Structures are given as structure tokens and as C-alpha cells.
């Protein structure tokens, strides 16, 4: 059973955007044709687009990009602004005035936000490593054709994709295991995603069997084949799967809402919800209220700084994994 | 293949490291996915957390009868279907249009830059997305301030039940429309340029080429995603809705999942909530399998096929 349409073949078998070498470039013997790939060769039959059409297209795409970027811009800018600037603009800041890192100094000076950031980092790190390792192992274990019991075990994974146990019995189980107010409750219940295992499995199955056969003849066992051959060949897919897990752990707020009552164990998303979205004042939090005497930044910049804190890890990892998306995602989503 | 002639014992010896590798994942799934599935027996019990599953008395189908006679549950089902239907009509086409638009950009640098930017919000948590919307469209948000400066009266989009459907759909679009284009772009990349060339020779213009070549090429993907969406019809943005249920009220924001959460975890009516959740799970399962069947009928591969 596999998710399958023929579109998945495209981006993998063929590199993206293969440039059709323009004849005049070949004639000029361009010294760096790869880096000079400014524009795709436009076929003669395509004709030149009308300036109006070009203009409309450019306008629409610019608006789309702005719709994504402007909210982020104003959040980040507000987090670096002084209270005075925030008051002057009457809320979110669009035009930079005096910039300050006071809001960050305040939330990171200990207190609940600092702890929440720590909890989020720990849960995300431990969870991602655990999930990725377990999934890679399972995916390889299930990827060898004809191995003992691989069909029934595969079935065990597939069922979980189609039928979830439900929130109530899961809650009761976690609670009976004594995991309430324990960070493992944020990791273990969702540690294995059958979908991610299938992404990896189909990638392993796609690797030329001649390579693994050669290794086997040279005396390599399954552990060595996985570690020395499969892993190096599948870093892109593994990175994407790890990113999916990592983003899942970092962004999850509902599990924490269910299982974590003790606010010193709250992850960042829960702090974000309570303090920023619902406007609850947190106790002993370093998100202190107006303090005119010390000139501390209050209110909005602090809230926006917490948001930025929740954004940073994603913005940090994104550029590195981003280029693998199309490959990894298409492979998994379509060929599963 | 001599495979069949190997004895079971030999296969066990040969594949023991493979079995060992799957063990941790299978263990986690058994404990955290299969044991809770069995835990659904409380739906047939008069469950009390003090005596546990083993000692709670069985009451037959009483809980299910209560679920189906409960106007709030039926209201939540209605809301769920309304939200899914609305998003199907107003969300689903957007990634396709975006992908077509982006595909027509000839400069690779610009194309990949725009792609990386519009993928980004997919990786933000719902808390973050809802908070951003609140800061922009809320009563004290950016848009309202700008409107006030221009002398217009303000509005609060975040707490208005009448526009809630629009609000959550635009949040979903902002978060995931960019991500949704990946699959369509991949499908578009596989179209053989020879088709375009041939049709251009026959005098087909830009729009005719799109209608007769590009769209048919991505048709299987469109149908596949449509079916997946239908199969998922009872699961609409749970985190998104539970975050905003307080602000707009249960009238418009209550879906099956939020209802189960409030009945079970908040009100402590465990057995009733488990029954409601089980009904949802089974209907969802039927929808996925049914939608897939439908795909086969239409001659598409669907979500899976036997292999």
C-alpha cells in the first residue's frame, strides 16, 4: 500500500529547472554558464508576454509576498521598539524609531519566559533526535524486500495513519502512566509518525539494490549498510523528516495544555497563548508590568519579543532545510 | 527466487537486526496508539476515573444514544461540516492559482525566492498565527489603528461571530496556501514541453495551452488532494479553533474535536466524550476509505493502492 501518483517521478529523476543552453551562449563559450543562469530560455513559440500581463503578474506576486512579510516585519520591529515609539504609532510599529533590546533583556532575565524557552528547546531537541532515530531505524527495517514479518509490521504502522485512538483514551493513558506534569508527555505520545516512516522507507527502497548488494558481498551487515550507505545517501530526506518532527514538537501547544499544569514546565507556545494571546499576567515572570522608574519596556514590545522567540528557531533552521523541501516532501507526500 | 525454500528459523536469523530496528517504533506505537484504541471501551462503560477501566460497569450503547440525542454534538457536527465545506470552496483553489502563476515566472532566482517566502508561514504554530492576526486585525490591532487615524470607525474581526468563517479561512490561507503549491509545482514540472510546442504550432494561444495542457496535467494531483481533504472532513483545524473559541463563542467555533475536549477533559464526562470521539474516528475512517474508493472509480490512483 503506497501513496502513489506518477507526478512524484519528476523532480527526482530530473533536476529542477534544467536550463536549456541558449545557442549563443555556447558560441560565446561562457566561462561560468551555471552561475550565469539568469533566465530560462524562452521558446520561440511562447511569444513575448504583454507588458500589461507582466505588470499584473508582478503586482499580484508582490502583494502575495508582502502579505507574508509585513506582519512578520511589524512583529519584529515592534519587539525592538521603545514604549514611546509604540505609543506614538498607537500599537504595532511600522516605521522604525529608536531601537532597543530592552524587551529581550527583560524576558530573558530569568522568569517564566526564559524557563519556557528552555523547556521548548529541550523538548524539541530530545524529541526530534528520538523520533528521527527511531523512524530511520524502522524505515530501514521495513524497507528490505522479503524480510521476515515486514508486511504485518508495515500494517501496524499504516493503521495508525487511518484511525486515531482519540483524545480521551490517549489522555487517560498518559495520565495513568503518571506522565502529567512530566515533559515526556510532550514527546512520547507523538514520537513516531507513520507518515514520516513511510517517507523514509520509500526513499530507502528507491536506492539502487546493486549498491547494498555489493556492500553485503563485502561482508556488511544491515547496521553497517544503514549507517555507511543509506544514511549518507539520504541526508536530504532525513533532514526534511527531522524538520517536520522538530517543527511539530516546537509548535505543539495542545499537548502541553492537556498534560502540563505546572507553569514552570510550560513550553513557549503555552506562554505565548496565555500571556500574549489571552493577556493573562503570569506570576513571577519577568514579563513585569509598567515600571516607569526603571524605564523598562512594557506591554507590546515584550509580547512581540516572546513571539519573536517562538519564531527564531524556525527562521534559523529554515534556510538550511528549505532547499531540500521539494525533493523530500514530494517524495514522501506523493509516493509515500 | 529461493526465498520460499529458506526456513523460518533461517529467515529469523538473517533478519533479526531488521526486526530489532523496527522494535522501538513498534513499541511506541503499541503503547501510545494501540493501547488507547483499546481504551475506547470506556465508551460502553459508566466510566469513573476513581475505579478505572477494569472496575467501571458496562452500560451498553447508552453513551452513544446520549451522543446522538445531544443537540450540542449535532451542532458541532454541523459547524465542522460548514467550516470544511467553506474552506474547500475558498481555500482549495488558491494554491492551484498560485502555482500556475509562479510556474509562469521565468527567472529562477525570483521564482525560488518567492517560493521560500511563501512556504515560511506553514512552519509557524497556530498560536503564533492567531496572535499575529490578533495584532493586525484585533480591536487594538494595526488595521484598526490605521483606520482610526484615517477617521474611520474601527471593527474587531477577532471577536465577531458573523465573520468568523472568513477569519479562520484567511488564517488557513495565510499559513498554508504557500505550502500547498509544492505538489502542484512538482506536477507542473513534469509536463512535457513538446505538448506545448505542438499545440502552439496548431495555433493554441497562452490560455488555450493552459486549459488544454497544463490543467489536465495536474488533474490527478488536484483530485488526489481533493479526496484527501474530503477524507479529513471531520478534522478541521483543532488547535486553530480551540485558540479562538473563547473569543467568538461556541456558537460558531465549536467543532467535534473541541466539543470532545470540553465534554471530556474539562467537564469530566469521560465516557460520553470517548463515545463522541469514537463516532468521529469511525466516520473519518469511512470517509477516507470511501473517498479512496471513489478515486478508483474515477480511474485515479487515489491515496493508496495495493502494491
From TrEMBL, chain A:
Keyword Zinc annotated? no
Give me the segments passing through the membrane: 58-80, 92-113, 119-141, 153-172, 184-204, 225-247, 304-321
- GO CC annotations on file: plasma membrane
Instruction: Give the record's membrane topology.
Output: Multi-pass membrane protein
Signal sequence annotation = none
InterPro entries under this entry? MetI-like, MetI-like_sf
Which protein, by its recorded name, is this? ABC transporter permease
Q: Which UniProt keywords apply?
A: Cell membrane, Membrane, Transmembrane, Transmembrane helix, Transport
One biological process term from GO is: transmembrane transport
Q: Which residues form the ABC transmembrane type-1 domain?
A: 117-321
Q: Where is this region: Disordered?
A: 1-47
Family affiliation: Belongs to the binding-protein-dependent transport system permease family.
Q: Where does this one sit in the cell?
A: Cell membrane
Q: What is its main location?
A: membrane
TrEMBL record, chain B:
Record keywords: Membrane included?
Answer: yes
Q: Which domain of life is it from?
A: Bacteria
- Could you tell me which CDD domains the record lists for this protein? TM_PBP2
Q: Domain named ABC transmembrane type-1: which ranges?
A: 77-291
Q: GO BP, one example?
A: transmembrane transport
Q: What is its main location?
A: membrane
Where does the record place it?
Cell membrane
Q: Which InterPro entries match?
A: MetI-like (IPR000515), MetI-like_sf (IPR035906), UgpAE/MalFG_permease (IPR050809)
Which terms in the Gene Ontology molecular function aspect does this entry carry?
Answer: ATP binding
Q: Name one GO cellular component term.
A: plasma membrane
Presence of keyword Transmembrane: yes
According to its record, how does it sit in the membrane? Multi-pass membrane protein
Query: Which Gene3D superfamilies has this protein been placed in?
Result: MetI-like
Query: Which parts of the chain span the membrane according to its record?
Result: 18-37, 81-102, 123-143, 163-189, 210-231, 270-289
Keyword annotations from UniProtKB, A to Z? ATP-binding, Cell membrane, Membrane, Nucleotide-binding, Transmembrane, Transmembrane helix, Transport
Q: Name the protein family.
A: Belongs to the binding-protein-dependent transport system permease family.
Q: What is this protein called?
A: Polysaccharide ABC transporter ATP-binding protein
Amino acid at each position: 500500500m503506497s501513496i502513489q501518483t506518477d507526478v512524484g517521478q519528476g523532480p527526482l529523476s530530473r533536476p529542477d529547472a534544467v536550463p536549456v543552453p541558449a545557442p549563443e551562449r555556447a558560441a560565446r563559450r561562457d566561462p561560468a554558464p551555471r552561475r550565469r543562469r539568469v533566465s530560462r530560455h524562452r521558446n520561440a513559440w511562447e511569444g513575448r508576454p504583454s507588458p500589461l500581463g507582466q505588470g499584473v503578474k508582478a503586482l499580484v506576486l508582490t502583494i502575495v509576498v508582502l502579505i507574508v512579510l509585513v506582519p512578520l516585519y511589524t512583529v519584529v520591529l515592534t519587539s525592538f521598539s521603545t514604549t514611546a515609539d509604540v505609543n506614538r504609532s498607537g500599537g504595532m510599529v511600522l516605521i522604525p524609531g529608536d531601537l532597543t533590546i530592552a524587551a529581550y533583556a527583560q524576558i530573558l532575565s530569568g522568569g517564566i519566559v526564559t524557563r519556557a524557552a528552555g523547556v521548548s528547546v529541550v523538548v524539541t531537541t530530545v524529541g526530534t533526535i528520538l523520533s528521527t532515530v527511531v523512524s530511520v531505524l524502522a524505515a530501514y527495517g521495513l524497507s528490505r524486500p522479503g524480510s521476515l514479518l515486514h508486511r504485518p509490521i508495515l500494517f501496524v504502522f499504516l493503521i495508525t495513519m487511518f484511525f486515531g485512538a482519540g483524545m480521551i483514551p490517549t489522555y487517560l493513558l498518559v495520565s495513568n502512566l503518571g506522565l502529567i506534569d512530566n515533559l515526556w508527555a510532550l514527546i512520547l505520545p507523538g514520537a513516531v509518525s507513520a507518515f514520516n516512516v513511510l517517507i523514509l522507507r520509500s526513499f530507502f527502497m528507491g536506492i539502487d539494490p546493486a549498491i547494498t548488494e555489493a556492500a553485503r558481498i563485502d561482508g556488511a551487515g544491515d547496521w553497517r549498510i544503514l549507517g555507511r550507505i543509506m544514511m549518507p545517501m539520504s541526508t536530504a530526506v532525513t533532514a526534511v523528516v527531522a524538520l517536520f518532527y522538530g517543527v511539530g514538537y516546537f509548535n505543539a501547544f495542545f499537548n502541553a495544555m492537556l498534560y502540563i499544569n505546572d507553569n514552570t514546565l510550560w513550553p513557549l507556545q503555552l506562554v505565548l497563548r496565555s500571556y500574549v494571546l489571552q493577556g493573562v499576567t503570569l506570576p513571577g515572570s519577568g514579563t513585569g508590568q509598567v515600571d516607569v522608574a526603571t524605564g523598562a519596556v512594557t506591554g507590546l514590545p515584550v509580547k512581540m519579543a516572546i513571539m519573536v522567540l517562538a519564531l527564531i528557531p524556525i527562521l534559523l533552521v529554515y534556510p538550511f532545510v528549505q532547499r531540500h523541501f521539494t525533493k523530500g516532501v514530494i517524495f514522501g507526500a506523493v509516493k509515500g | 527466487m529461493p526465498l520460499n525454500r529458506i526456513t523460518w528459523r533461517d529467515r529469523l536469523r538473517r533478519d533479526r537486526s531488521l526486526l530489532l530496528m523496527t522494535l522501538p517504533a513498534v513499541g511506541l506505537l503499541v503503547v501510545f496508539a494501540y493501547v488507547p484504541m483499546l481504551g475506547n471501551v470506556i465508551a460502553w462503560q459508566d466510566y469513573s476515573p476513581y475505579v478505572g477501566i477494569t472496575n467501571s460497569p458496562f452500560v451498553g450503547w447508552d453513551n452513544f444514544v446520549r451522543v446522538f440525542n445531544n443537540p450540542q454534538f449535532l451542532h458541532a457536527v454541523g459547524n465542522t461540516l460548514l467550516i470544511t465545506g467553506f474552506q474547500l470552496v475558498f481555500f482549495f483553489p488558491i494554491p492551484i492559482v498560485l502555482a500556475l502563476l509562479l510556474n509562469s515566472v521565468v527567472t529562477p532566482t525570483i521564482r525560488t525566492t518567492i517560493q521560500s517566502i511563501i512556504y515560511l508561514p506553514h512552519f509557524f504554530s497556530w498560536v503564533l498565527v492567531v496572535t499575529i492576526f490578533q495584532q493586525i486585525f484585533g480591536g487594538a490591532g494595526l488595521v484598526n489603528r490605521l483606520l482610526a487615524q484615517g477617521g474611520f470607525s474601527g471593527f474587531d474581526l477577532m471577536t465577531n461571530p458573523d465573520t468568523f468563517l472568513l477569519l479562520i479561512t484567511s488564517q488557513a490561507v495565510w499559513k498554508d496556501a504557500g505550502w500547498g503549491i509544492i505538489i502542484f509545482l512538482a506536477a507542473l514540472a513534469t509536463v512535457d514541453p513538446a505538448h506545448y510546442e505542438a499545440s502552439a504550432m496548431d495555433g493554441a494561444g497562452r490560455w488555450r495551452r493552459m486549459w488544454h495542457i497544463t490543467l489536465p496535467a495536474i488533474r490527478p494531483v488536484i483530485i488526489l488532494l481533493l479526496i484527501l481533504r474530503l477524507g479529513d472532513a471531520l478534522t478541521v483545524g483543532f488547535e486553530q479553533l480551540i485558540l479562538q473559541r473563547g473569543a467568538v463563542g461556541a456558537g460558531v467555533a465549536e467543532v467535534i474535536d473541541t466539543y470532545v475536549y470540553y465534554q471530556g477533559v474539562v467537564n469530566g464526562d469521560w465516557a460520553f466524550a470517548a463515545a463522541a470521539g469514537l463516532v468521529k474516528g469511525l466516520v473519518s475512517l469511512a470517509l477516507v476509505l470511501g473517498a479512496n474508493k471513489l478515486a478508483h472509480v474515477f480511474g485515479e490512483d487515489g491515496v493508496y493502492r495495493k502494491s
